[in-house]
Amino acid sequence: MILAWTLFLLLAGVIAVAGFWLSRFGDVIAERTGLSGSWVGLVLMATVTSLPELVTGVTAVRVENAPDLAVGNIVGACMFNLMLLSLVDLFYRPACMFTRASEGHALSTGYGAVMLAMVGLNIAAPLPEPALSLSLASIAIVPVYLLALRTTFDFERRRLLEPAEPAVAKYPGVTLRRAAAGYAASALGVVAAGLLLPGAALELGRQMGWSESFVGTLFLAAVTALPELVVTLSAVRIGVLDMAIANLLGSNLFNIVVLAVDDAAYPHGPLLSNVSRVHETTILTALLMNGMVTAGLIYRPRGRPAGAMSWVSLALIAAYALNAVILHRTPAG
User: Fold this and answer.
1) Which of the 8 DSSP states describes residue 239?
2) What is the per-residue DSSP string for 148-209?
3) Around 159, how many Cα atoms within 13 Å sit in the side-chain half-sphere?
4) Rounded distance, CA 263 to CA 265, Å?
5) CA 68, 289, 86, 152 torsion: positive or negative?
6) DSSP class per residue in 223-239
7) What pTM does this model have?
8) 216 pLDDT more than 60
9) Which secondary structure element, helix H or strand E, spans residue 213, and what is its range?
10) How high is the pLDDT of residue 218?
11) Chain-centre distance of CA 150, in angstroms?
12) Is 159 in contact with 104 (CB distance < 8 Å)?
């Protein structure tokens, strides 16, 4: 048991260190290339930090023949990432997060809601499936994801073309080549530790005597989201708020694409037609949380109860907790 805890904490430590440098070098790349921090977080960082979900999902459907574990991990990670926005709000002290964040993040929450809704509809009412043995939602997910990236890129490009005061270079001694090399090395550290982390978590769960449902639905989703957590808090620490938010929302978009990959890897027919409808509860909660974040980005609340975090962030935590209680009381099936 001591060995299992040691391995788990060691991998978490590697992610913590590599995540800090990933955020810093990502900020340099954004500065040197003229890309926005939102775009770097949405694409570069989100893809890297979501690889544990990819490996875990494919392993679940191909090796363990556990489709519910794969789907539960993805939708649970999406909900967990949205809850992590409350931590961004807590640790970002200059002002309420929603007053400083770019409104463009609402595009990510909007597209994320569309993709989650397609998955939920496919689970709730399976339609006649195509000859490719893929769920209809999985076929539509990838084009919607590419459209989301294109739309967000166009929005950010228009925003960057608007007149603004000249920015002061934050990293005058770091070249783009050095930043790219540092980013690649940091990403390798996050990926290597992140890919080993789910297996270490499952072994730890077995040794601790935790139930499979707890490990799969709550613990595994939280563990595979650990890279997102570390990279996001590191981005907040160095003051790149939009990159931190984009990493979480971009990870959600990429995670749903991972669900399509899991579907393609599942050998027993369309994945979403072979899972429990209990996942609908988590999907509906994630849709509710997406709506809360979108409202916060547009309304931009200024108040912070007790000086801690906004009402939106408190509502996100409450929704996550409520979902856990509902899942605990809902029999699978």
Assistant:
1) T
2) HHHHHHHHHHHHHHS--PPPPPS-TT--HHHHHHHHHHHHHHHHHHHHHHHHHHHHHHHHHT
3) 16
4) 5
5) positive
6) HHTHHHHHHHHHHHHTT
7) 0.86
8) no
9) helix 212-213
10) 62
11) 19
12) yes
